[in-house]
Amino acid sequence: MIISIKELKKFTFCVLIPLLLGYLSYLLSRLLSGVDMNTYYYELIKPVFAPPAIIFPIVWNILYVLMGISCYLILSHKRDEMKIRDSMFYYWLQLGLNFLWSILFFGFQLRLTALIDLIILIVIVVIMIKKFKKIKPVATYINIPYLLWLLYAFILNYFIWFINK
What we know:
Helix content: over 70%
Number of strands: 0
Order of helices and strands: HHHHHHH
CATH superfamily: TspO/MBR protein
Radius of gyration: 17 Å
Largest sheet: none
Shape: elongated
Number of domains: 1
């Protein structure tokens, strides 16, 4: 299969946007807190099931790429523009909530507010996944690891908030 330059640009744009937003969130969090996120995370009292800090950038980069691929698949679907627009609203909303989480948790050290953001994010991702399934089921399956990671992050965020009150 030959892919056009236009499609390659669209794919690259779709994958780069979540990666860049994740990196920008990291930079803003670091700027606001004045501390590297790894240092802040290291100093928190964490539950025994908390992973080492090095795991987070690896997992998030993989998840951001998967989000970008699912976005590309939805935007490349040529039918039912209304469904595509509707599903992309939830895609962009979840990216915004995702962007905010690091800033709330690390930048402002508002762990409970970050937890609330995470609850809303999970709900929006579930809606997005359901909307994606109606357009391109493979885009749904690509986002399952993201949803599972968010559920894990919710549990971790809850225990960190509770332990460090």
